[in-house]
Amino acid sequence: MPSVIKNKFTHIKEISPGDYAVMVGGRVGKDGIHGATFSSEEFHEGSPATAVQIGDPFTQKKMLDFLIDARAHLLYRAITDNGAGGLSSSVGELAEISDGCEIELAQVPLKYAGLQPWEILVSESQERMSVVLSGENLQKFLDMAKKYDVEATVVGKFTNTGKFVAFYEGEVVADMDIKFLHKGVPKMKLKAEWNGNLDNEGYKEREIKVKDLSEILKKILSRLNIASKEGIIRKYDHEVQGGSIIKPIMGKNRDGLSDGAVIKPILDSKEGVVIGCGICPKFSDIDTYWMAANAVDEAIRNIICCGGKFEEISLVDNFCWPSPLHDKFKAAQLVRACKGLY
User: How far is CA 66 from CA 107, 151, 244, 336, in A?
Assistant: First the structure.
């Protein structure tokens, strides 16, 4: 995302009462319902199959191309995806800026008939977006959508009533205060107790008495966590339009795993983006603080080795955790991991 387009900062979202809420991209179905809650709980035999989104990469690609063009023309004021929570989250999130919204769920395009209003409201998808349009740009946006063969539908308007209101065929099916929607959930308070003993005998460096380590080294290198991932990488399209400059596999035979890569998002540009990663879950057996710190250290070193600049690095952490609700030590480990990231 460019930081500035036509002298306007792109991170600033301005929404006024009367602006239109428009859904763009794939239609709504029963897939992706409760996906966000499903991803935050333990997987079990009763987990709903409908929580998993059914992807449509062709629709997603057309939508992205269209939205990039519309962005270049400054047609929309704000945008957010219909991931976790679907329209309830995307429009509800944007409605905090204007302090209210009204949605008509009967106008939402569906994959098939038979969805309940609440299902239309919360169904999630990564190839659906919600955008904010002024009355002046609405028709220009819809016309451009037709040119790209992308479905774009007005599903509501933003207000300043302080309310999130959803209708179905004119009848109110949801009515909540915006403040409650964003700040009404009580904060969970957990107790953490750290009693980690880093001087434990099991964690001390052991004396290696083997003289010939070559066979042991071969066994270590053959482990699936360490061995070359070439067979997996080549199953996927890692050369989209030849945009990868430093590739995810390297070495003399192009069969060694690289933890850093450089891609060229704009093919006719000389600028690239460096991507690196770091992960060391076994360190959590000793201390989650150093597990997190080492993951950050590894990711940064991989980026630097590919030519990245330290002062321009942005980090994203993504981890799952055992439930700390009734375990003070697990809660403490989570706190220490966050401190390690910080």
Answer: 21, 10, 23, 43
- For 297, residues 6+ apart whose C-beta sits below 8 A from its C-beta are 278
Using left for φ > 0, alpha for ψ between -120 and 50, and beta otherwise, residue 340 falls in: alpha
The highest-level CATH class for domain 201-341 is alpha beta
Q: Do 86 and 123 contact (CB within 8 A), yes or no?
A: yes
Q: How many CA atoms lie within 13 A of 97 on its CB side?
A: 20
Contacts of 281 (CB under 8 A, 6+ apart): 291
For 125-184, write each residue's pLDDT tens digit.
888 999 999 999 999 999 999 999 999 999 999 999 999 999 999 999 999 999 998 988
Three-state DSSP at 262 gives strand
User: What confidence tens digit (pLDDT) does each residue in 169-213 have?
Assistant: 999 999 999 999 898 888 888 899 887 666 666 667 778 788 888
Q: What are the CB-based long-range contacts (under 8 Å, 24+) for 262-268?
A: 262/306, 262/307, 267/241, 267/242, 267/243
Does pTM surpass 0.70?
no
The beta strand positions in the chain, using DSSP E, are 4-5, 8-9, 20-25, 78-81, 101-104, 128-133, 152-158, 163-168, 171-177, 244-246, 249-250, 256-257, 260-263, 273-276
Cα gap 1→19, rounded to integer Å: 23
- Write the pLDDT tens digit of every residue in 240-264: 677 888 887 877 887 777 778 898 8
The CATH number corresponding to 4-183 among 3.40.50.300, 2.40.30.200, 3.90.650.10, 1.10.10.10 equals 3.90.650.10
Cα 122 to Cα 106: distance, rounded to the nearest angstrom: 14
